[in-house]
Amino acid sequence: MDATHAISGRTKLACLIGSPVAHSASPLMHNTSFAHLGVDAVYLAFDVAPADLERVALALPRMGAIGYNVTMPHKASILPLLDDLSDAARLMGAVNTVKVEADGRTAGHNTDGAGFWRGMSERGFDVRGKRVVILGAGGAGSALFVQAALEGAASVDVFNSRSPRFQAAVDRAATIEAHTGCAVRVHDLADGEALASCCARADAIVNATSVGMAPHEDGCLLSPALIPAGAWVADAVYNPRETKLLRMAQRRGNPTMPGIDMIIWQGAIAEEIWLDRRMDVDLVRKLLA
Questions:
Q1: Is the pTM of this model over 0.85?
Q2: Segments in the chain below pLDDT 50
Q3: Distance between CA 149 and CA 265 in Å, rounded?
Q4: Cα separations in angstroms, 270 against 16, 162, 192, 288
């Protein structure tokens, strides 16, 4: 089967729900992968308003969907509409992937953090036993620090401004530490002394904020002096593909990972959940390049 295969009465449905969704690369990524794997399925994007979320979540299993992705603004509000949750989804308080079981039950997962650390692992970094610094405690940052703790990181230091989400991050960090035994601390991003101290002993430093995203490509939260020799540096920002932070780290000789790897691998893990098949990540990476 190729990308132009005919849709038939047997073709299965996977999709993305959220609002807005017109910009999403997920249909391109998953339809290409389905065709490459010979899976008779199609992936569509549906713009779903918050008022319609419950009706859509109930309808998709009845329509025979194999699963779906969830994006903003529904990642948290979808939780009570699902039958089961993975540990990661429950601890993050957010779902981005739902599998519809053969009996119609729905299981919510979060592959954002898992996708990020899978990407790092594929490049040679194993988070187990490592000290990690994460800049940002929003949706991406929470996914990363929860998953790092679940996968056995030695410690995670999270830096965020004193925004309304700060206390929520502190509370989540305490829950994660109690659940995993990993030392998780949330610091004020304005505390330069704490930031310098944590970065100096970090094995990996990750930007999980929007700083450096187009059209503000000159933004960067770190100075070169804060990046220790040998530490991995990664960015959740994927536009541009190479951020100022990554260029700075590369000039210092540090290993890096771009944000596009997180996008690709979270999708790959979603397909593993739906299909028990492995996406050709190299094919998709070339497609999105």
A1: yes
A2: 1, 3-4
A3: 19
A4: 12, 33, 38, 17
